[in-house]
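Onboarding guide, step 5: your first structure request.
Type a short instruction followed by the sequence, for example:

Predict the 3D structure of this protein.
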Amino acid sequence: MSVFTGPHKSLDSRAAAIEDYLSPILSVNKYSIARAIQSISLILLVAAVLAGIVAAVDHNWAAVWALTAIILPLIVTLWLCRRGHASTAVFVLAISLLLLSTTLATRGQGIHDVTNFVYPGILLISSLVLNKRAFVILTICALLCVAWLVLGAMFGFFTPLPVTIGALSDLLLVSIILIATAFCAYLLSYNLQQSLIEAQEQMQERQQVERALRESQTMLQLIFDNALDGISVYEEDVAHNTRRLVDCNARYAELAGRSKEELLAMGDTTPIQKDVGEFKDRAGFVERLKQGVYFGHFSWLRPDRRENIIEYAAVPLYLGERLLVIGVDRDITAEVQAKAEREAMIAALEAKNAELERFTYTVSHDLKSPLITVKGFIGFLEKDIATGKLERVKEDMAYINDATAKMERLLSELLELSRIGRLVNPPEEVAFADIARAAVSLVQGRITARGVEVEIAPDLPTVYGDRARLVEVVQNLVDNACKFMGAQPHPRIEIGVRWEQDEAVLFVRDNGIGIEPRYHERVFGLFDKLDPTTEGTGIGLALVKRIIETHGGKIWVESAGAGQGSTFCFTLPDARQKTPPPEMPVHGGGNPPPVSNA
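The system replies with structure tokens like these:
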């Protein structure tokens, strides 16, 4: 590739400017035309040499000098063709041929000179290459040349030679002009035809590309409209830190819980999106997009108040100064919920495993102790029977009976615990006051022995569940409260309800020894006894907790600490407001009246 500097570079830039001025608007296969003009210039150069020889034979030295002068414009034409300036080369060539022909005609026979045959050929060839403006200029120049030949001779500016019978030189000259003109016209028309063919092929290819593009757009539109994931196109306004929804598919609108028209009219959907991702403003989000595709999460604030968790991928698309963000959204609410449930099940399983370990250890320990007792006293029993000590035999039998009774009670409670959640009674709707009275009647012996006053609230709700199991709950809680009254001179137990945000919280409250806050969770553990010296197996509260959770509720204890009493609270999802008829409270000691509401 040539590198032009100095005047050469300036000359080439000027030629390029002239080329733009002379070239037609649609320049088809410009370099092919330039090659054709280059061939024409070479042919004309040969023709000029031949014509010069003919003129020299006829001793027409003026024609020889004129033909010699045309060599320089032909060289310039060749240089322009090599640079690809076809229009400029044709224009220079046409002007040079017009001047040459006019000069030869002026020196020859004027308007009747054979060289005037070149005028139509010049205009014909020029019309195939130059634009309208350049063709008009050449036509005017040709008319001026003809006017010169006619008017110049009329007014005596030159004297044309007399018209003579045609000579051999005239035949040769005219033949050269016609052949050169015909070849030039053919060469240009052929190149133009080839250019038109190429243009037609390019147009067909373009039509094929456009058809393929339309098919691709149709396919993409179908994918866009029917994709299972939500697809959106937002335009980000970085300067104003805002965005506008440009387009979205039906699935995107479905995830938002709104129509596509409503979302498009809204423009900026940020107010109805709750971002749970990394970025809280548009500027930070746009800055992150400069690094490429961004993955994040958010939730729609749907009109139906159903929250869905969306995982999205945002892809930046720069169109000049515009920044578009193409988003692909997928609803992963079910996956997140499944993961949470799976983690909850794993946690529950771990808790069950830990409970099973404690269960195995405690059962082996608690069963081992009475077995050792039975085994030891069986030995004592054999010796006492052999020696005839009947009083000692009775004592040995009493120890053995106590040990077997303890084992029986432990096994019975473990069996009861294992049945919860598997063997259930048909659920029924029952007033919780009836459950409370039935439970208190079952613990009446301990209540009477401790002189405990039991009060059942009059506004207890109606519940729906396994009546027998719910009686066990209240029975265990009341029995537990009686056991841990301590030295309270006026022991009292209250069975009641309080309402928290339309939810019934049932409770059994006592004024006994209380429970330190650090033990509030531990008391519900299997075999967890805060005081190992007390009676019982440590299964009661674990049994209560499992029954409540089987019914879909929850249980907890409230106590300020030692000497402050305890309140065991629990919920049952199916509890409904219902007020039973009031009755008298239950008092401990002597023959108590029937258990009633207070």
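Each response can be followed by summary notes, for example: The longest helix spans residues 168-226.
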